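FIELD: query
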Amino acid sequence: MKYEKLYAVIAMTGIIVGGYWVINRQGNRINLLVETNKELTIALEEQKSINTDYQARIMRLNQLDIQYTQELANAKNEISRLRDISEHHPERVYIKAECPKVKTTPSTSLAYATTARPTDTAIRNYWLLRERIAESERVILGLQDYIKHECLE
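FIELD: result
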């Protein structure tokens, strides 16, 4: 009986020590999980901030793209309108022109005078250059805005 009480005390002590050890181990795991959770929450908030910033940058770039695409379309429409006007009313367009030379020399040169007309090559080159200038201007302005908004901020 004496030993039975001793065994019971030892068993009870073992159970208490074992329980303390299990509770302590679980407490350490819980603390580790809480710390990991805090770190992941901080990383998630940082990623949310990065994503929000990224979405704002994408929206700004889309707005720049829309703006300069519209301006380029407007410039091309204006060039097309001017081309149509010049074809229907050539007297209003000032382009370097050549006057055809008369082969004979009449007594009055006004009788054989012809109007100055730009060469076909000059007309084609003029409109081609206007289009390219408009495109280049829009591209350059778009790139400058991109640099101002995205690279210098």
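FIELD: remark
The longest helix spans residues 2-88.
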